[in-house]
Amino acid sequence: MASTAAPTTRAPAEELSIDEEITADGNGSNEGRVRFASGLRRRILHFTPSWFVVNMGTGISSILLYNLPYSFNGLKEIAIAIWLLNVVLFSLFLLIARYCIFPTVLSAMLYHPVQSLFLGCFPMGFATIVNMTVFVAAERWGGRWIWLAWSLWWVDAAISVIIAIGVPFFVFTRHQHASTLNTVSPAWLLPIVAPNVASATGGIVAAVLPPSQARLTIVVSYMLWSSVPVAVMIMGLLYLRMAVHKIPLATEIFSVLLPLGACGQGAFAILQLAEVSLEHTKATGVWLDGGRMLGNLPAGTAELVASAVWAGTVCIALVIWALG
Q1: CA-CA-CA-CA torsion for 231, 132, 203, 126, nearest 10 degrees?
Q2: Angle formed by the axes of helices 227-245 and 189-206, nearest 10°
Q3: How far is Cα 227 from Cα 270, in angstroms, rounded to an integer?
Q4: Is the pTM above the cut of 0.90?
Q5: How many CA atoms, within 13 angstroms, populate the side-chain half-sphere of residue 241?
Q6: TM spans, by residue (predicted)?
Q7: In sequence order, which residues have a C-beta less than 8 Å from that of residue 69 and are 6 or more positions away?
Q8: CB neighbours (10 Å) of residue 190?
Q9: Residue 11 DSSP class
Q10: Contact 41, 101 (CB under 8 A)
Q11: Burial, 159: exposed, middle or buried (Cβ in 10 Å; 0-12, 13-18, 19+)?
Q12: Cα–Cα distance between 58 and 84 in angstroms, integer?
C-alpha cells in the first residue's frame, strides 16, 4: 500500500530559531516578569493564520442562530452576543502583531506549504462579521450601517482576491513539494474558497443597498463566484490523491470535509445572487445590465430574464449542493 503520510505542518526554521532565542532569554533569570514576557513572545511567535478558523466557526454560529426559523425568545440576542464575541476575537487576533515583532516570520510563513494556505481563513472569518452587520445593524437601523457594511464588503472582497491569487502563486513558485500526489492537501481549497465566500456576502449586502450600488455589487459578486470552478478542479486532484494514496491519517481526517464548504457556499452564493437580482429587477424594472441591453425591449422583459436566470440558478445550485 502506498504511503499515507501527510504534508508536514512543522513550524518554519525561522520560528524554531527565534523560539530558541526566546528560551535563552528566559533562562538564567528567576524573575516572573521575564518568564512571563518570554512566554508571551513565544505564544505570539506561534500564532499562525489558522487561528482565524475560530472566527469562521464563531461567525457562522451567530449567523445560523440569528436566521434560524425555529426561534424562541432570546435566541436573536444570543446570536448578537456571539457576533460581538466574534468581533472581539477578530480584533484581538489582529492586534497580535506577530509580524511586527518578528518580521522575518512573515516571509517564512508565506514560504511554508501549510501555514500560508490558512491565510484564506482571514477574509472568510471577516465575511461572517460583515454578514451579521447586515442582519443586525443595516436591516434595523439602515443609514450609515448600510454603507459601513458595503465598505467592509469591498475590503473583504479585495483581500479575498489578493489571497486567492497570491497564495497559489507561492504554491506554484516557492513551495517545495515532493513529486507525488501524496502532498496534495484539502487545505489547498482555503485560499480559493475565500472569493466564493465574499461572493455570498455580496449577495447579502446587495439586498439592503440602493439600486445602482446593488447592481454593481451583484455583478462583482458573480465575478468572485468564478473561484468555484477552480475549487472543483482541486477536488478532482483530491479524489485522485485519495484513490492512489488512500485517506489521510486519522489526525488529519477532518480535512477531507473541506470540499463540503466549497460546494455548500458555492451553491448558496449563486442562489443568493440570483434571488437578490430577481428582487432588484422586480423593484426597478431594470436587470443587471442597467437597461442598456434590455431597455428597448417590451416592458416586463427584464423581469422575465431575471426569472429565467433564477430558475437556471436553482438547477446549478442543486447540482453543486449534491456534489458536496
Answers
A1: -40
A2: 150
A3: 12
A4: no
A5: 22
A6: 44-66, 78-97, 117-138, 150-172, 184-210, 222-241, 253-274, 304-323
A7: none
A8: 28
A9: P
A10: yes
A11: buried
A12: 10
Is-contact 324 260, C-beta < 8 A?
yes
Cell of 19: 523560539
In degrees, rounded to 5, the angle at the alpha carbon of residue 55 between the alpha carbons of residues 54 and 58 is 85
How many CB atoms lie under 10 A from the CB of residue 289? 13
> Degrees (nearest 5) of the Cα angle 287, 306, 155?
65
At residue 115, what are phi and psi to the nearest 5 degrees?
A: -60, -40
Which one, of 115, 109, 114, 105, lies nearest residue 18 by Cα?
A: 105
Q: How many CB atoms lie within 10 A of CB 296?
A: 8
Looking at residue 304, its amino acid is L
- Three-state SS for 117? helix
CB 1 within 8 A of CB 242: no
Distance CA 221, CA 95 (A): 29
Residue entry with cell 455548500 = 264
One digit per residue, the tens of pLDDT, for the chain of length 324 reads 333 333 444 455 555 555 555 555 555 444 555 454 566 777 777 788 888 999 999 999 999 999 988 888 889 999 999 999 999 999 988 877 677 777 777 788 888 888 888 999 999 999 999 999 999 988 788 788 999 999 999 999 999 999 999 999 988 887 776 667 777 888 889 999 999 999 999 999 999 999 889 999 999 999 999 999 999 999 988 888 888 877 777 767 777 888 888 899 999 999 999 999 999 888 887 777 665 655 555 657 778 888 898 999 999 999 999 987
Q: Which CATH number is 13-323 given?
A: 1.50.10
Length of the chain counted residue by residue: 324
